[in-house]
Amino acid sequence: MNATARWTAGMQFVGTGEAGTALTMDARPEHGGQGTGPSPMETLLLSLGGCTGIDVISILTKMRAPLDGLEIRITADRAEEHPRVFTRIALEYVFSGVSLSPEQVSRAIELSQTRYCSVAAMLRQVATLTYSWRIVPASGPA
Fold this sequence. Notes:
alpha+beta, GMP Synthetase, Chain A, domain 3, N-terminal domain of TfIIb
């Protein structure tokens, strides 16, 4: 796996993956950036959400679960001193689906967190990772 982060201006970088897709990262204005994209640390949290989300969707699809929507809300605490690594990360999975089974949801998350999500496995080396989940009415995550 290869990727490139190319400086464009100010504190902005454009990251490009092997497939050629791009992601703009930028520092917040209080750190000299323009806020044109997520910061690198926010990007890491988004990577965690994407990694576990892909796992969960894949597992629920194989279970033929009637999923209408999934939103993963991520909150994190960072160390006070540099390097300001994450010390605590909490994920909240918000599912929607008419007949979605709590057992299927729980099992899909458990498999992602304990077996499949590489990003969670790496972050767990430096931070406490916790998760919760809930199912909301099929109109969409609230």
